[in-house]
Amino acid sequence: MFKKMIVGYDVHGVDVAKELMAILKKMKIKAVVVENSGDSSVDYVAITNRATKMFEEDSLADGLILICGTGVGALMLANRYGFVRAVLADSKQRAYYARRHENANCLVFAGGYDDGKVKVEPTNNIEEIIKAFAQTPFEGERHKARVDSLSSVGE
After folding, report:
1. Residues 12, 101, 106, 143: which is the catalytic one?
2. CA–CA gap between residue 10 and residue 8 (Å, rounded)
């Protein structure tokens, strides 16, 4: 079970972050939030970089949670860091297998976004996704070599 998570979100993730914080508190998981002060000029790039660096420096943090409009931008950026294994968490099943087989340490949620042509809804079922993620151990064994390879890309 995770005890501490770093949380970063942009202006599109405010509502999801509020829900998330209540869930983490209920689960007794400490959340360290990378503040964005509601400033719409602070985009997912800045927040993801700050949160990811904070995660790297905090040896007590078990994981990282990022929220941006679609979830895709934060996911792509977070996975550029060799020590991050992020999953776009849209179901408890994906969160479960991301932990069990890939030793994922970062959940990325969609906060919701609408450009007038296509709308992305905020991630639903956040509580069950976080529970699946935080309570599932890495299986190791046959998956360890692959996870080690993922972490060494770009070194």
Report:
1. 101
2. 7
